[in-house]
Structures are given as structure tokens and as C-alpha cells.
């Protein structure tokens, strides 16, 4: 009884799940199915023209599909784009490209590099007001020989040619820096100072939602002492837009 | 006489016309034989456009599984401080079939140095300083993708990967800039659940025992992640 009930129940679930999949038909002479989501995985099955397949899921540029007789395998995007949806039109996949690189709103990334001789690890989030101007919020950890610390800052960036694949930008911002001298080496107190910075860099559109980023910033720390400190920073890293 | 003949001549064509003219309208009342239209001339290469009503289709979104989240447990050998159990979490984003970026956090408790054990003196570190936590941001690449076979009828996707990156380690009362690199084996139990075996070296500078040196801290871990 329980067995029957579970069988009915599971078959219903399976049915409901099956209904949710997008179904396409093969328009190419054949469609190659790989055992895994990558070119290195061997082709083990071929689907003929006109046969219907269900798309189960997507991983990077590979789609897991199921044929009518239940064979499951992975097909790359180039071949999937030459299949037809039931209306007869070819299928389109929402794919991030260089245009999204220019016009996307949000960006998230991580960079690392040198901060006046110390190591720095940073993450940032950015919001674009328009293709040229965006606002960024940064959080950094500074790991030096004589002191450690953290830094938080907000800056505005301007991209002159946002539609270029390698897009240069200029930036201007302000924030706070917290420094903790290492007690074993130098005597000193923890302190929090205001900073301002100018800088510039390059954003390079790599692939899909992936950006490589390199930048230089010059910081001025407004200390409570007589003179202000100047620090130069170099960083490279990667980011995503969405 | 002449006019009668003229009328006759008029009547004949009228009848003839009338009968033929009615042919067009007689089927209106359901009388007469159904006339088949002449066969349309078929021209070679003529495109016939069938009028088919469009089907209303709700197109479901395709489930994209590029993120991988999971936990790991293993052994971290902290240079001079022995080996201890380490555990942590890992989040990866697969950019292409080859490249991925990942972030991990891990935590362990350091043991005692040989010096501390042999001398029997005061410990070098307090309990809170003995706790080691790290985070890192890595870039990785899948090499040698393939299948692993268990027995006769089971095949699982697998891949070897290499990854390297930067981060920070909090140990012995200090945050230390840490470089790590390593390699791992990813074994897909299902298309979404993955088993990881990962070996990694964490390098940071430490001057706790007198002179500054770069410490190699080797880690071996077993992880379970889920794609979503």
C-alpha cells in the first residue's frame, strides 16, 4: 500500500518535474552529446535531426539534455543555439556579452596587490549610474611587516570609453584607514585616520560575466601629526558584473 | 416579320445567357451539380505558407548551476606546531568549463611545538593565539577532465584541478598575508553533488621563533559541495 502510494507520488513528482523542462528539436543533421560539461569529455551519443530533447540544466556553456528514450548528456552552447523551440524559431540563451560589460548595473570583485610596501587584499562592489560613471564601495585588509589594518572607502569612477574591451577609468574617493602596529616590533597605538585618493586603471572584459581589473591609487592619509602621509597602491584582480 | 425575327434573335441569346448566368447563382440555393474549380497550376518552387495558429508556450527558465557551495574537513600541518584537524567552507563560481574562482574560510587549533613539550616551560602562545583562521580568494583551472569507473556499470565524471590565490591567516596574534596553491580531485557523485580531495600549501611569514621565515603549512582535506 505504502509502496503503491509512494510510486504514485514519485511518478507525479517526476511528471510535474518533466513538464517544467524546456523542450527543443534538433535542426542540425545531428547533435553531439558529451558525457560531461566540457570539450574533454567524450561524445557518447548522437541525436538525429528532428528529434525532441529536454533541457535539464546549464553549467557554464554546457547544457544537460535528455532525449525521448531517456539518454542524458551534455551539449555545448554553439550546438544548442541551432535547435528549434516548438514555435519553430531558433532558441536564444540569455548570454552576457561585451554590451552587458558596458551597460550592466552591478559589479563585484576582489583585488590584491601592494599598498606602500604592505600587502593588501580588497573586495569591492560597484553600482553604475550610467555607462560612464559608477560608485564603488571598497573594503580592504592591509598586511604589512610593521603594522596591520583595514581600510574602507567610497569612490566615484569615470570610464571615458566604456564600450572598449579594455576600458580605462579614473577614480576619486575618500574613506578611513585603521592601523594596528605590531606590538613585537614597533611601539604605537592603534589609530584610525581619514584618507583621500586619486587613481586610475583598466577594466578588461575577459569572457561571459568576467572582468580583469588592474589599478593604481595614490592615497593621502590625514594624520593628527604635522605632516600627511602619502601611500601608493597597485592592485590586480577580477570582477563580475550582473 | 422582321421585328419578330429580331425578337427571336434576342430571346435565344437571352435564354442562353440566362441559363449560363444562373449557373453562378444556382448553387446558392443548393440546386444543381457542385462544380469543381479548375486545378490550380503548380509552379515548380512555389512556397506554400500554411496558416497554422501559434501555440501558446510558457517557456520555463533553464536551471543554471554555476555556483558550488560546500564544506570540507581535513588536516592542516602548521609548521612547528604539529598537525591538527581543520574544517571550513568553500564557495566557487565556474566562469567557463575550464576556469573557476573560489573563496574559502578555514579554522583549526594549533598544537604545541617540540620546544614547548620538551622544556616543559611556559607555552609560547595563549589559547586564543593558538587558534588559526584563514580566508583566501583563488583562481583555478580544471585539467584532465574525464570519467572514473567503479565496477562494471558505473561511471562518474571527475576532473583534476589546480588553483592558487591570496588571503590572510590569523595566527599567533597576528594577521599574516598568505599565498596558497594546490591541486585537487573533483568527483561528481551526481550532476550536482561533488566530492573533493584537495591538497594545498599555505605560505606565510612568521618570526615567532626568533628569526623571520616563510612557513609552509600543508593541508589535505575532503570536501562535499553542491552545485546551484
N-end to C-end Cα span of chain A: 50 Å
Per CATH, the class of the largest domain in chain A reads Mainly Beta
Q: Widest sheet of chain B: strand order?
A: 2-3-4-5-6-7-8-9
What is the CATH class name of chain B? Answer: Mainly Beta
CATH topology of the largest domain in chain A: Porin
Overall mean pLDDT of chain B stands at 81
Notes on the protein architecture:
The complex is a heterodimer of chains A (242) and B (228). By secondary structure, chain A is mainly β. Chain A folds into two domains: 67 residues, SH3 type barrels, CATH 2.30.30.40; 143 residues, Beta Barrel (Porin). Chain A is 12% helix and 58% strand. In chain A, strands 8-9-10-11-12-13-14-15 form an eight-stranded antiparallel barrel. A five-stranded antiparallel sheet of chain A has the order 6-5-4-1-7. Chain A starts with a helix and ends with a strand. Chain B is of the alpha+beta class. Chain B has one domain: Porin. Chain B is 15% helix and 52% strand. The longest helix of chain B is centred in the first third of the chain and has 25 residues. In chain B, strands 2-3-4-5-6-7-8-9 form an eight-stranded antiparallel barrel. The interface between A and B is large, with 41 and 40 residues.
How are the secondary structure elements laid out?
The complex is a heterodimer of chains A (242) and B (228).
Chain A: H1 2-20, E1 22-26, E2 30-34, E3 43-48, E4 52-59, E5 62-67, E6 72-76, H2 77-80, E7 83-84, H3 98-103, E8 106-115, E9 118-128, E10 133-143, E11 147-159, E12 166-181, E13 191-207, E14 210-222, E15 229-241
Antiparallel strand pairs in A: 1-4, 1-7, 2-3, 4-5, 5-6, 8-9, 8-15, 9-10, 10-11, 11-12, 12-13, 13-14, 14-15
Chain B: H1 2-26, E1 63-64, E2 67-77, E3 83-94, E4 99-109, H2 114-119, H3 127-130, E5 131-150, E6 154-171, E7 174-188, E8 193-206, E9 213-227
Antiparallel strand pairs in B: 2-3, 2-9, 3-4, 4-5, 5-6, 6-7, 7-8, 8-9
Amino acid at each position: 500500500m505504502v509502496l503503491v502510494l509512494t510510486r504514485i507520488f514519485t511518478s507525479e513528482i517526476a511528471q510535474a518535474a518533466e513538464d517544467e523542462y524546456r523542450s527543443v528539436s534538433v535542426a542540425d543533421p545531428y547533435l553531439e552529446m558529451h558525457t560531461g560539461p566540457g570539450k574533454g569529455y567524450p561524445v557518447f551519443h548522437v541525436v538525429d535531426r528532428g528529434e525532441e530533447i529536454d533541457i535539464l540544466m546549464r553549467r557554464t556553456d554546457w547544457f544537460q539534455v535528455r532525449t525521448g528514450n531517456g539518454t542524458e548528456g551534455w551539449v555545448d552552447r554553439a550546438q544548442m543555439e541551432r535547435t528549434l523551440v516548438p514555435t519553430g524559431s531558433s532558441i536564444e540563451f540569455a548570454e552576457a556579452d561585451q554590451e552587458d560589460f558596458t551597460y550592466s548595473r552591478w559589479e563585484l570583485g576582489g583585488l590584491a596587490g601592494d599598498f606602500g610596501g604592505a600587502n593588501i587584499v580588497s573586495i569591492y562592489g560597484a553600482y553604475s549610474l550610467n555607462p560612464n560613471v559608477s560608485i564603488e564601495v571598497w573594503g580592504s585588509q592591509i598586511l604589512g611587516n610593521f603594522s596591520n589594518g583595514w581600510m574602507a572607502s567610497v569612490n566615484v569612477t569615470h570610464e571615458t570609453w566604456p564600450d572598449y574591451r579594455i576600458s580605462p577609468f579614473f577614480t576619486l574617493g575618500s574613506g578611513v584607514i585603521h592601523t594596528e602596529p605590531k606590538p613585537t616590533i614597533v611601539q604605537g597605538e592603534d589609530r584610525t585616520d581619514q584618507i583621500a585618493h586619486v587613481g586610475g586603471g583598466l577594466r578588461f572584459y575577459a569572457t561571459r560575466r568576467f572582468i580583469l581589473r588592474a589599478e593604481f591609487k595614490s592615497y593621502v592619509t590625514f594624520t593628527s601629526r604635522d605632516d600627511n602621509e602619502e601611500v601608493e597602491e597597485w592592485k590586480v584582480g577580477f570582477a563580475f558584473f550582473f | 416579320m422582321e421585328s419578330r425575327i429580331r425578337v427571336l434573335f434576342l430571346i435565344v441569346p437571352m435564354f442562353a445567357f440566362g441559363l449560363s448566368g444562373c449557373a453562378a447563382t444556382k448553387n446558392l440555393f443548393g440546386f444543381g451539380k457542385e462544380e469543381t474549380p479548375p486545378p490550380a497550376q503548380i509552379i515548380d518552387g512555389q512556397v506554400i505558407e500554411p496558416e497554422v495558429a501559434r501555440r501558446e508556450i510558457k517557456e520555463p527558465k533553464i536551471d543554471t548551476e554555476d555556483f558550488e557551495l560546500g564544506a570540507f574537513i581535513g588536516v592542516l600541518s602548521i609548521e612547528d606546531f604539529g598537525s591538527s584537524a581543520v574544517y571550513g567552507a568553500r564557495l566557487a563560481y565556474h566562469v567557463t568549463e575550464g576556469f573557476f574562482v573560489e573563496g574559502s574560510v578555514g579554522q583549526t587549533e594549533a598544537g604545541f611545538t617540540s620546544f614547548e613539550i620538551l622544556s616543559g616551560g611556559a607555552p609560547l602562545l595563549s589559547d586564543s593565539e593558538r587558534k588559526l583562521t584563514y580566508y583566501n580568494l583563488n583562481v583555478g583551472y580544471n585539467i584532465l577532465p574525464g570519467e572514473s569507473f567503479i565496477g562494471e556499470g558505473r561511471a562518474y565524471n571527475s576532473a583534476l584541478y589546480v588553483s592558487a590565490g591570496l588571503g590572510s591567516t590569523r595566527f599567533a596574534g597576528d594577521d599574516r598575508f598568505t599565498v596558497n596553491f594546490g591541486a585537487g580531485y573533483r568527483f561528481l557523485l551526481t550532476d550536482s553533488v561533488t566530492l573533493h580531495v584537495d591538497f594545498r600549501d599555505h605560505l606565510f611569514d612568521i618570526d615567532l621563533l626568533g628569526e623571520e621565515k616563510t612557513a609552509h603549512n600543508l593541508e589535505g582535506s575532503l570536501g562535499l559541495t553542491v552545485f546551484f
